[in-house]
Amino acid sequence: MQASDYQSQTTGVKSYLTPVVFYALCYFFLFSYIAIIQGLLPLYFQTRDISNSSYSIISLLGIVTWVFGGPVTQNLAHRYFSVRSLMLAAGICYVISIAGLSISSAPSLLGLFFAISMFSFAAAVSLIDTETLHSDKTVPYEKIRLWGSLGFIVTAFGTGMSAGQLGATIATQLGMLIPAVCFLILVYQNRALFPDLARYKFMPTQRQHWAWRALPQQYFLILAIVFLNWVSHQTLYIYLSIHLSDLGWSARGITQAWMLGVCSELVMFLLLPKIFQHVSFRACIILSMLITCIRWTAFSLSTDTNIILLLQVLHAFTFSMFYISSVKLSYRILPPEFRDRGQGYLTAAGSGAGSVVARLLLAVWTIYHPDNLHVQFLFFISAVVAVIGSCMALALREHLPN
């Protein structure tokens, strides 16, 4: 059997949903967790008497495990275990870790369960990404992936509303547990959609020596650009709420600013299939990186409310367009036998390594500037990083016409 042969057996197990609906619902339930992490989880840890320093360590530990979730899972899928068994294992570990987060109070246990949850999350998303890309000929990947943004919006809105009635602690627990359990049930009921054999078969010598030598240099360039893009975004993710609060924004206004960014990315997901019919992936990456430079530069210069809201709309370009274009260009230029694992490394380079490096640097900055973070200066540094990424993007090439 050739390396690119796709293998799947259902062994009599039936699926209750079509693949497209199933993948969309998986994104919906999985990315609900991101809404909790960015919104209520810091407050939830405070109710557990977790200090800011302990929370920083727990958060960093979770991101580190996120780095390895995708690559480790994809290599296991190619060498030892079936995609089906790995999806079920990721779902079970995900639910157990979320339950642990809900009942634990010791910092060590919270750190352990959060790390497991992030690894399981990254593993599941990596597997869903590759399965969705394999079905990209029927429904574009971006139209399925937008359900992740929808899950983020629904969870952020629902937990925010329920926090006023139930309290932040119970709202956070329910916001984590309900989507996690739904995801596990969804995977188990529709496990027939996943192959129950390893996706590819290799000769033993091929497993050890072929992979990295066969990859095009353009792929490593994409990894570097994705890394820089995520590094530049961390000032926004970590300090935007603090920055807006210092400018006098209310909690409601800050929430609306975040929601505006997420809603704009959802709209972009809908528009991208039409855009890709006329614009190449390379051109979209270059455009999104240039807009990223403009966005961070404007953040560093302006404190006007209307301009900040406009800059949040640009999240559609700096995240959505960049993310989908980099995923699709990587999928195009990679050898078929490495495409699945290539997506895992792409995630590890961006939301994993890029986030870790930037958060470490920002943590050091916070230690030396505890009273005045100079957030606008940090946005200027982010703009410089984005400029470097933009210059690198100009060197990208596409091997096939789009």
Mean pLDDT: 83
**Total beta-strand segments:** 0
Q: What coarse outline follows from CA principal-axis ratios? A: globular
Largest sheet: none
Portion of residues within helices: over 70%
Helix and strand run: HHHHHHHHHHHHHHHHH
Stretches where pLDDT falls below 50 for ≥5 residues?
Answer: 1-12, 200-210
Strand content: under 5%
**Radius of gyration computed on alpha carbons:** 21 Å
Counting helices, strands and paired strands, the structural category is: mainly alpha
CA-CA gap between termini: 30 Å
H/I helix tally: 17
Overview of the molecule:
By secondary structure, this protein is an all-alpha fold. Helix content is 78%, strand content 0%. It has helices at 19-30, 32-38, 41-47, 52-79, 83-103, 107-134, 141-166, 168-189, 204-209, 211-214, 217-246, 251-275, 281-301, 305-313, 315-333, 339-368, 375-393. Helix 2 crosses helix 7 (141-166) and helix 5 (83-103) packs antiparallel against helix 6 (107-134). The longest helix has 30 residues, at 217-246. It is globular and about 55 Å long.
